[in-house]
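(Structure overview)
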Amino acid sequence: MLTALQTNTNGLLRRVAQRGSNSWTYWDELEYRNVPNTIAAVTQSRRANNSAKYQGINLMHDNTIELRYFNSNARGGRVLKNLEFVTMLYDYACKVSEPYHWDAETDDTPPAKLVEIVEGYRYNHESSFDALIMENEDEEANTKRIEGLLCKYLFDNHSRYPNLYGFLNDTDDGSIELVVDELEMVYPTNTPEPEPVEEEVVPLQRSDY
């Protein structure tokens, strides 16, 4: 899905990330060699032949995948919007792949129908959610099928991703009110000094040496 979203440089990913491909986040398609299809490659080896630290999808770490798309942000709602976007991608992927069982350890090739669905994300189509996808409706953009599907999924489940939905609809200013009393409980202004522990000093005897 991220590979498909990267191909539209002024689309949904660009709007959510609040920046485009640059020296800190190259939107390059991951390259795999000698594999039957991308699904098998990601599942079985994960490490792409062109993996690099500053790619939008950084696979250089053994136990984590780093997504470098998002612009730095100190506004609470905008940070949560980014987390909700990644969560939504995961939730949608689980929803799509749920009907298809595949054990990569016993079968190199995933179900043909699942491969067909994944390849379908690359196709163009007209979307009724262009207003959510586009930052500037006057600019032309190559809307991908996955953008429309994700926007529909977000629209149908907007209560699960309120900050992302609000941001794309311009109803969220990206701020979260900080309640002083709640902050005080976590980060008290006046930290009490620890009470000194009085220990009885016992002088050493010559026999103790």
In short: The longest strand covers residues 57-58. The chain has a mean pLDDT of 77. The chain has one domain: 2-168.
